[in-house]
Specification:
The chain is of the alpha+beta class and 236 residues long. It has two domains: 109 residues, no CATH class; 64 residues, no CATH class. Helix content is 54%, strand content 14%. The strands form three sheets. Strands 1-2 form a two-stranded antiparallel ribbon.
Length: 236
């Protein structure tokens, strides 16, 4: 995996800004892993994809995640910070299949999520995803029915087989003591950081090009500390 340079991040942002979040995640990994075919990355289990995205983020922005979340009970704004290093250390290959009630399922992939992306009914989406991930899809018929408990059982089995497919964070509100769990969408988080970096770089290029007549490659070739000093002098 290669570290993305500032020109890489600008190119990535420009190419991905109009894409669906699923495609942005795959494009990011294609930039960081130029030897891996795009279709191969799309077929990775989600845990492997998420682990790779965490590694890309670690190389570009560090391991600390810092943000805020609103308490769903009282609306209090809670700031949080955690280190992603344990996520990298716990990464493992997903088990090939899990068997629940006689049916075998493989962990879902980005390609599977793309199939259900337009589905608005949560239960219909879950059933469609199960059909996608069942290794014997012919066992699914129009008469197949699943109770909520059965769906939860399959979901838990798949989560155990691919631990990083969903990254869960636990929160406790200091204002009302409410506790809850929320998921971290590392793909969305990383893209927000890529976009923020790209916009800052373009602003730096605009400022220094206007002041000194430098080209974009010349501005981007400056180290971060040197570019920051030039920007300070322009603003002074």
């Amino acid at each position: 995996m290669r570290t993305l340079s500032n020109p890489d991040l600008l190119d990535l942002w420009e190419r991905g800004r109009g894409l669906h979040p699923l495609d942005r995640a795959l494009l990011t990994l294609a930039f960081a892993l130029p030897g891996e075919p795009y279709d191969t990355i799309a077929a990775w289990p989600l845990g492997r994809r998420n682990g790779a995205l965490v590694r890309v983020r670690h190389a570009c922005f560090g391991s600390a995640f810092t943000g805020w979340v609103a308490c769903p009970q009282c609306g209090e704004r809670l700031e949080f910070s955690f280190d992603a290093q344990p996520l990298l250390e716990q990464q493992q290959e997903a088990n090939p299949t899990v068997i629940v009630d006689g049916r075998a399922y493989r962990p879902p992939t980005s390609r599977d999520l793309a199939v259900i992306a337009a589905e608005t009914d949560e239960r219909a989406a879950a059933l469609h995803l199960l059909r996608q991930c069942c290794t014997a899809p012919s066992s699914f018929t129009d008469s197949c029915e699943f109770t909520e408990a059965e769906l939860v059982s399959i979901e838990d089995a798949l989560a155990g087989a691919d631990p990083l497919a969903e990254i869960l964070l636990e929160f406790a509100c200091a204002a009302c003591s409410h506790r809850w769990t929320d998921s971290l969408d590392v793909a969305v988080w990383l893209w927000a950081e890529i976009e923020a970096r790209a916009r800052r770089l373009l602003f730096d290029v605009h400022t220094l090009a206007a002041a000194y007549g430098w080209s974009e490659p010349e501005v981007l070739s400056l180290s971060e500390p040197r570019r920051a000093v030039y920007l300070e002098m322009v603003r002074a």
